[in-house]
Amino acid sequence: MKHLFIVGALALFSLPALASPAHSYAFGQPAAAAKATRTVEVVMGDMYYAPRSLAVKAGETVRFVLINKGAVAHEFSLGDAVMHAKHQKEMLAMQGQMDHSAMGHGGMEHGAAMQHDDPNTVMVEPGKSAELTWTFSQSTPIEFACNVPGHYQAGMVGRLTIGQ
To answer: What global pTM score does this model have?
Structure first.
């Protein structure tokens, strides 16, 4: 009987974790590349994206091919301005924890030190490419941005409009 009570209590306490995923987004969700109905190539340079704006439709699944032609690591992150501001604070904290230059260990490699598991975000090292596939769910304006400290402020942000 005691074991049944313990199992029941554990099941009850784990329900909130099962009911709300760690990452949920009002504008959509990650998808498998095979589900994409369109592929969009985005070039990442030092402090710019090309193109600077994108338009998708609600319900559309888009495979983004991200090509970093810049000299440093850059990020492609989908979200609204509030999400990006929060993410930038997290990235700044990661940089502070990983910056060993004051100890004579050289400068920080942004990409290696700032890896994270957000499904709406991909870090791309210089000269490399990566992919992100996303199904957009509702008509709302969002941004794609690089949240490596200082990059967003230097203009590495673009508008993504989700239409009907």
So the answer is: 0.76
Percent of the chain with pLDDT over 90: 65
d(CA 105, CA 51): 37
Tokens found for residue 63: 């495979």
Determine if residue 96 is left, alpha or beta; phi over 0 gives left, psi from -120 to 50 gives alpha, anything else beta.
alpha
Which CATH number characterizes residue 116's domain? 2.60.40.420
Q: State pLDDT tens for residues 13-33.
A: 333 333 334 578 999 999 999
The Cα 160–Cα 3 span in angstroms is: 52
Which residues touch 75 (CB under 8 Å, ≥6 apart)? Answer: 114, 121, 122, 123, 124, 145, 146, 147, 148, 151
98-117 residue pLDDT tens: 544 433 333 344 444 556 67
Q: Classify residue 155: in a domain, yes or no.
A: yes
Task: Name the residue range of residue 46's domain.
Answer: 25-163
Helix (H/G/I), strand (E/B), else coil: 82: helix
